[in-house]
Design brief:
- There is one protein chain.
- The protein is of the alpha/beta class and 408 residues long.
- Helix content is 38%, strand content 21%.
- It has 16 helices and 16 strands.
- Strands 1, 2, 3, 4, 5, 14, 15 and 16 form an eight-stranded mixed sheet that branches. An eight-stranded parallel sheet has the order 6-7-8-9-10-11-12-13.
- The longest helix has 18 residues.
- The relative contact order is 0.17.
- It binds N-(iminomethyl)-L-glutamic acid and fe (iii) ion.
- The site of N-(iminomethyl)-L-glutamic acid has 14 residues, from helix 4.
Length: 408
């Protein structure tokens, strides 16, 4: 058992609602705080000196100087398993071509598929580990990672196995999602429905057998999959016990409606959502996930985060780190920028990258600093938590703990 502290400010984020708008006054701030942990779990959070009295036998891990502690951040939507780069797409977009035009002309997702297929499983593992290490330096202690650049049974398996293998090599936890329904592979002879059938029949059984993932995703969009084909695909996944998440309303609406209909854990993107979709999501159990990294990568609208929160939605914020639409990867910076454009409080930003993101992954014991939760937290060298978003990512953690152990 050990006590870690004192922290100038400790923000447990433990007594906050899962849905709706939040004010900074709602944040509980423990001055001179401490965390008691045992076997990787939190026993108690409180005032440092009181904890020392209460647990006299605990070993004390003393923190020197100013430190603000917050729960380990959670990036609930990434595509950090990929080969190659799409710097050319970025330049083409900035020269006037649209994301969908570039995809039609052989760039886009398909070019990353070709590069990912060229990579060995070991090379993919290496890439994931490198990117995950960068995320760890931002205080991110849980990362969701999607497949979706394999787009054949064998190549999707290679990706998912690589993510699983990388999970054993990274300090933080990686959560896999099967995104075989990312786009119709150009080398598949058949239509969208036939491709999804192949995935259901030949990939799904292996996912279950090798315990490769419990989550599935689909990109619902004009250039990808429509509502009609994804509904039965999701129903099939649900029968196998998969959680559903959706790439929804990125360029046109429709995806979020499917997400709500199938009881998806989250609907992500939502840049094109109108008030109708906002209210539908707010009245559902589906988490609305904003991906400001994709807005910054593509130069399009931000997700209507303010409207979603005001309508009562559970808003998570994730990086969508991928080589195409979201190459930057810095969740802390992106969430802070989203705050300036959508007028989000610090409490809403912090909730969106901690316990609300945990809910998007339906993870029960991460994202808060409370008894029974994993002792995952990030420490910033400052005396005021507001500096974190204010500095828009420049203030990086001075230390990161996973399961009570310092990992960065
Ligand atoms: O979340 N929109 C679909 N999928 C990814 C982008 C993938 C890519 O462009 O490589 C996204 O933005
Ligand atoms: Fe994505």
């Amino acid at each position: 058992m050990k006590i870690i502290g004192p922290f100038t400010q400790l923000l447990p984020l433990s007594q906050m609602p899962l849905k709706g708008a939040l004010k900074d006054e709602d944040l509980v701030i423990i001055d001179h705080g401490g965390i008691v942990s045992e076997n990787g779990k939190i026993l108690k959070v409180g005032e440092f000196n009181q904890l020392k009295n209460e647990f006299p036998d605990a070993q004390v891990e003393q923190i020197q100087g100013n430190a603000v502690a917050i729960p380990g951040l959670i990036d609930s939507h990434t595509h950090i398993c990929f080969g190659g780069t799409r710097a050319k797409d970025f330049a083409m977009r900035n020269a006037g071509k649209s994301y969908l035009d570039i995809a039609r002309e052989g760039g886009g997702i398909w070019s990353t598929v070709l590069n990912t297929r060229k990579a060995t499983q070991e090379e993919l593992v290496q890439g994931i580990v490198e990117r995950a290490n960068y995320l760890l330096s931002l205080g991110i202690t849980t990362v969701e990672v999607k497949s979706g650049y394999g787009l054949s049974v064998a190549e999707e398996l290679k990706m998912l196995r690589a993510i699983k293998e990388a999970n054993n090599l990274t300090k933080q936890k990686l959560i896999t999602t099967c995104l075989a329904a990312h786009t119709l592979p150009k080398d598949f002879e058949g239509n969208h429905a036939q491709y999804l059938k192949l995935i259901e029949n030949e990939l799904f059984p292996v996912l279950v057998e090798e315990n490769l993932t419990q989550r599935m995703d689909a990109f619902i969009e004009e250039e990808a999959f429509d509502e009609k084909v994804t509904l039965p695909y999701f129903e099939k996944g649900k029968e196998l016990g998969f959680q559903i998440t959706v790439h929804a309303d990125q360029f046109s609406t429709g995806g979020s409606e499917v997400a709500v209909k199938v009881g998806a854990v989250s609907a992500d993107h939502l840049e094109a959502s109108t008030q109708k979709e906002v209210e539908m999501l707010a009245n559902s159990a589906t988490v609305a996930t904003a991906l400001p990294g994709a807005t910054l990568g593509l130069g399009c609208a931000f997700t209507p985060a303010r409207a979603l929160l005001d309508a009562g939605a559970c808003l998570a914020i994730a990086s969508d780190w991928n080589p195409g639409s979201g190459p930057q990867g810095n969740l802390l910076s992106q969430a802070s920028i989203l705050a300036t454009f959508q007028k989000l409080s610090n409490a809403e930003v912090l909730a969106g990258i901690t316990f609300r993101a945990a809910h998007a992954l339906r993870e029960q014991n991460i994202g808060k600093l409370a008894e029974g939760f994993e002792a995952n937290f990030a420490m910033f060298e400052t005396d005021n938590y507001q500096e974190i978003t204010y500095q828009q990512g420049r203030l990086m953690p001075s230390a990161v703990f996973v399961k009570g152990e310092i990992v960065f």
